[in-house]
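Chain X:
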Amino acid sequence: MLDSMESQNNRTSYPNIDTFELTSEYVSFLEQFNPNIQENIVSAFNNEMARNHRRKNFIKTVHNLDTILLSLDNTKIELSKLTLEWLPDFKVINLGVNLCKLCLDIDFKLDDLPVSGNYEVNNVALQNVLPVSSNGAITVVYTDVTVKGRVGLLIQGDSFVPENYDVDYTWNSEVSVSYFINRDTKVEAKVTRPTDDQIIAKTIWTQLKEVLTTILKDQLKGVVVEYSVQESLADEDEKLRQLAQSQLTKANGLFDTLLCAAKDYLVAKDLRTIETPPFEVLYRGKLSSTETGLFESGNGYIKDLSTLSRLSDLSLFEDERQLLVYGTLGMREFKHGYDSFKTKFEDNDLTGSLKAQVRGTEIFVKLSFEKSEESPQKTKVEKIETRLLRDTAIDTSGLGSLSWLIPTTQSWVLGHLRSTSMDILLKQIEAAFSYAIEAEMKKTTTTGSDGDNSRLFWKSIFSK
């Protein structure tokens, strides 16, 4: 199967790419505008942050997070009703404009981010001997939060549009819990550990990062798009537009070529549908209930990986050392579910299935191409991460008399998807792109028209 796929890939139809480079005179011309545009954007962004404070009673400051399921050996942890109370406020450390590279260099600092909710901890083995559980309130405070990186600028109409965010966050955290040991005695406990040891904080962070990046994109885009490309460059914008179009064609052409090969790999390896792990949860009808229920799913699935597609134009960054292409992709048909589950609660012993459809998915992918005399293209998938999961519809069948459990099971499905199953999906996508890169690099060493076309394509990608 893979042999036939390689034969098919050898007939790749490469896009035509016209390379455009700025003259040194025009580079100098652009550089004189960078400080003024940068000053205007920073001022407008700071004003927008101040405006958020003035309008704090009229904008969204409470952000809901999905349920999280964690398994530590036989111990099951469920975090629910998680909320972030935060007024959008990104403090500018640096916000640099680089017109020649069509990007923004950003460095922001954030105030403390408190995430609060409920926790319940159960031990499966212990339940058979002593049916007890621990529950209470949990708060995770993220401190010293920074976001730094590069934002690609596209030119759409007469506006600069910040579209692709190659950013990284740093943070510290403190986890605190509170619970009652009797009606009148409340216990509070805190734990502060190195970030790498904070399992709960790291798990919540993956979802919190989605919220922060989405807000950052909305806030920054609202400011930057207001600036006219033509007016900002005193009507001398034509060459910059040509550069933007050349970079867009390169980035999209390169990514689409690799994505096509990656999808061929997924189909040939029968990975249009991938298996995901089961999950197990102990639950009660209510906290005062004397009965504990057990919910066990079978293996799950995610499909259809063959519908992976680019969501928008990608960004490109190139210097003497490397070329980077980055942007987002999604699945037109993202189906997730469990063909079977079983649950026992009181006198009920039920089986059923769970089916979910995720209508909005954003997966960030960054490809790097290192330049060297020994190997002109040292290529790899440098970063792949979930940026957004939204608009999820979940259908539960088989619960019958336990219909009150349906909303809870749906939160479990989404929580397990975020905390566990998405990592498996990302690994499969990364493996597919790694195969595609290897296959394309292999073509450049072959003889004949296939090798000639491949080498010509890659030569057109690298302008330096």
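Chain Y:
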Amino acid sequence: MKTRKLITAGIISAGLTFGVVAQAAHEETQVEMKDVPEAAQTTIKDKAGNDQILRIEKETRKGKECYEAVVNKDGKETGILVDSSGKYLGTHDEKAEKEKGEKH
């Protein structure tokens, strides 16, 4: 009986720990352009072109610092993702991200 309770407690603890780690794997904080590293600013501005930058978020993805610029592209919100060294990581549709339940 005691062993069963210990095993159950261990399983619950492991589940809670995994949930916290998974949540910490993707965190976002809104920042100003001036707070973004210069190399990342250059890439964001280059990829945004004439599109309006609505907001910039500093993110931690798999332990790596990244920046997501959300731009208004032809009436749609598009996320431009770059790392802190300015490397372009891709774009995505913000509406689709919201529908999947990812946090902003």
